[in-house]
Request: fold
Amino acid sequence: MQAVVSGWGRNEDGKLQSQLHHLHANIVSNKVCDERWNAKGSPTGFIVSSMMCMDSTNGDSCNGDSGGPSIMEEPAGSGIYVQVGLVSFGSGSCTDEKLPGVYTRVGHYVDWIKAQMV
Reply:
């Protein structure tokens, strides 16, 4: 499955952006994501069910993108997009191709979100 993340954050050179940027990337399983973060020193179980990860092979969100949306077209080809994630954190360098970006999994919080709308 592929998602799109967008933001106004810094680029790989640390420069603020003057236009909105976006990136298409595959969603990575939490198991794979946890294994890759473990390889960089995080404890086992660091990636939990309230998180989702996106492949960073072709780029990642960066400093200043936090809280920004990750969206998916559902169903595929429908032209209808839903927010599935919120940028949380990444490698820090914005360029580590082996370390997936980590997002808050919106679906995990749907009940809480609905409760706040009352």
